[in-house]
Amino acid sequence: MTQFTPAQPTEIEQWRGFRERRDASLAVGHGWLTLTSLQWLPAEPSALELVPGRWSASGPGAGPGATLTARASDGVTLVSTGEPVDGTITLSLADGGSENWVRFQDTVVELAVRGNRYVVRTRDNSAPTLTGFDGVPAYAYDSSAVVQASYTAYPTPQAVPIRTAHPDVDDLVHATGTVSFTLGGTAHTLRSEQQPDGSLKVAFHDETNGHSTAGWRFLVTGQVSPDGAVTLDFNRSLNYPSAFTPFGTCPMPVEGNRVGVPVEAGERIPA
Predict the structure, then answer these.
(1) Rounded Cα distance, 79 and 84, in Å
(2) What is the DSSP pairing of strand 35-40 with strand 107-114?
(3) Distance from C-alpha of 35 to C-alpha of 259, rounded to nearest angstrom
(4) Cα 258 vs. chain centroid, distance in angstroms?
(5) What is the pTM of this model?
(6) pLDDT, tens digit, for every residue of 42-74?
């Protein structure tokens, strides 16, 4: 985008409310800003960093799943009930699933399956990414970053392989169609995912990535109209959690989902 368009006061108020809600959603206990480790579970019971006990896992759908053995004196409790873990417990998840499983002091341990492997992530409320958080940097609101687009649905969703923020994890995105629009005087077409409520999720690269913005971002639209009309507000472009922490496994955009002009709107690289 090359030309800044002044916004009307109502637009700015709505955007400021959106930004306040976004920052508040991040500044929560045991949320994305509290991640302090990502550790793949071994096949044989072994110690992990930052949390007591002996941990192991089989592959998803094989055997008991993830296993933790701890003593009551270790101070590990179940998140769901608060009861101490005294002995061996197991939990089985499907690929892509996750659950906040146990707690140790002020750290919650999330169990997840990524790339058909069990992993734990520790979430500590004393993490500097949370205690030092005072909002996500963002560009000033720009009316020219709000564009009208046309959505074309595929006959059936397409499963498209994608990479993620973690080099050991690949994923699939179920693209439901394409969204076409003009931004910065250039026409663009991106693959998108229609959500159950009728909105679209669009992940994209652009020319600001790695300079003023993170490696990629996404936005969620309002509902698509029956004739395929939809509004893309790039002022509401958001960072994935992996922009704030090295312990994310967030999906990258589908290959080719690139806006070929600088999108100087939305969230910037976190401080």
Answers:
(1) 10
(2) unpaired
(3) 30
(4) 19
(5) 0.91
(6) 999 999 999 999 999 987 655 679 999 999 999
